[in-house]
Design goal:
The structure is a homodimer. Chain A contains 11 helices and 11 strands. By secondary structure, chain A is of the alpha/beta class.
Chain lengths: 326, 326
């Protein structure tokens, strides 16, 4: 039985829905076990008795407004640290989910799980939906604010490996986020990274512009975490503003119930509401950690668990290791 | 009579429409004169005889794919350089428009117009429409790829002065583009800039995130040109992808002619199609230069001329000078 560890805290919707989401995934996957980390009564009240469920008890959790460094001192009993430690120490645990503090999860992962050889930091990657139903992997989307050219190389290799796991049949197109497509466009960081990226044994297609994130130009978008974060949030907000225009104009004409309008609004939301959709995967840790968005709901948990199972099946960690040897 | 110089070259639509746009503006503004720079026959064929029009003849222009440095050598007869020189030397010329190479226009402006004291480079600002009809000024949107914290301070002061000229009654809210709203979030550049910005005599409201560009959070968005460029292009493309979803889904249902669908599509386009809308204003040059987008059409010329007249009337250059003294 493959087990997934779930830190029940940190989501806006409260722990109950997170637990329910995990139960839903267990209905789909017969050989899935879940280790919940959190308050026993809360968990039991949702799950009842279930032999595929284990509980690690704690009431402490790290809040988003705390300094992430608290994972180093005195918070050994927090749900986040307990989850990471158990993930590290149990061979049948394939990964964990948490909607807790990204910063604490990042540095906690480095400390408790360790990094794959050749890395100085994990990267945070998001698999963003496109209008055409495909997904584009943006790496890094906010974990690493200051990056070196070699960091971007590692992001490219890991993003490529991630994409190869999810779509074994394609050779992912990897592009570097910059201010113009031509070689030589960009800042010092991207110019140096460009020269390194073109030597890699991946399908590097050169620079891309901010507009190309949402048009399906690349399968993997490589960026420092500062630019990655602002472009991710900007794309999401822009799409949702457009959805707001659809909803508001329809409302004013008393046409909110028009099936076509509803379908359009729903489709734009599905394309751009990254936050509601799922989670971001840490690339480069010795076991896989998925950061669920704060507004995660039941289905978020299901899709994140599916992501963990898919990556495990495809030998994700081995692929990253191999990529790092290059 | 206030005169505006117009480089007729560089727009995808060809010089005729640019000239027609200027004529349209002259119909609206009785005391507006135009100095066209370009081929005399082409200009005359559109304008006929008109005593409010002057022509500076040339057939040479700098292409977008040329190295911008050509403005320094041997291209004295290009429409761009002739426009800048005439702008500099004629007191009754208040500004110029060009759809030519941004890079050539940038370095040509520094060389031929000069910079307001206290500046080491002009900034490129775009006034972007929001869903609510307001405009947000993004500075810098791509002219300055590598910036110092003090550059960002200058961008803030100039963006603030620009906004005060356009909306004399409001105290513009100025925000710094970063990866989180809290003080202390960001990279070294934004962290240092934050400390400087909060000491300025402007309404600095702190950091903003990528999502806040399109939601009306700030009136002036301060950014280095790399981040500014990618976020500008990302917002535009995301909105236009959403518009594409509206159009495509309506088409599939044979409902493209539905007035509400058409109105929604049009409104999203108006909100996000920055490129079709107008131009970007250089802030900090001794006279005002507006870079029209390559896909400028007649109405682009009209709105850019209106922008020049508005800035002139509001004493834009004096406001920037005063801001730089602070």
């Amino acid at each position: 039985m493959k087990k997934v560890i779930i830190d029940i805290y940190g989501a806006d919707c409260g722990p109950e829905l997170i637990i329910k989401g995990a139960l839903k995934a267990m209905e789909i996957y017969d050989d899935l076990g879940v280790v919940f980390v959190g308050n026993k009564e809360v968990i039991k009240s949702v799950t009842g008795e279930n032999e595929r469920i284990e509980i690690i008890e704690t009431d402490d959790f790290i809040r988003n407004d705390e300094n992430p460094q608290v994972v180093f001192s005195g918070r050994e009993q927090s749900s986040l640290v307990l989850s990471l430690k158990n993930l590290k120490n149990n061979d049948d645990c394939i990964g964990m989910l948490s909607a807790g503090s990204t910063g604490a999860l990042l540095i906690g992962s480095i400390r408790h799980l360790g990094l794959i050889k050749g890395l100085r930091t994990p990267a945070l990657s998001s698999d963003l939906p496109l209008f055409n139903g495909k997904l584009v992997c943006l790496v890094d989307c906010g974990a690493n604010i200051a990056c070196t050219p070699h960091d971007l190389v590692r992001f490219a290799l890991m993003g490529n490996a991630f994409k190869e796991c999810v779509y074994p049949d394609i050779k992912p197109k990897v592009a570097l986020l910059s201010v113009g497509k031509e070689e030589g466009k960009g800042n010092d960081l991207t110019k140096e990274a460009y020269n390194l990226l073109k030597e890699l044994p991946i399908n590097f297609i050169g620079n891309m512009e901010g507009s190309d994130l949402v048009t399906g130009y690349a399968d993997v978008v490589v960026s420092d975490g500062f630019s990655g974060n602002i472009i991710l949030k900007c794309a999401e907000a822009s799409g949702l503003v457009a959805k707001g225009i659809v909803d508001e104009m329809a409302k004013r004409e008393n046409r909110s119930d028009d099936p076509l309008i509803k379908a359009i609004s729903h489709y734009i939301n599905q394309t751009f509401n990254y936050n509601a959709r799922g989670g971001a995967t840490f690339l480069g840790t010795e076991k896989t950690v998925i950061k669920m968005h704060g507004c995660a709901v039941e289905d978020t948990v299901v899709s994140c668990i599916e992501q963990l199972l898919r990556l495990e099946k495809a030998g994700f960690r081995e692929k990253i290791k191999k990529a790092m040897e290059k």
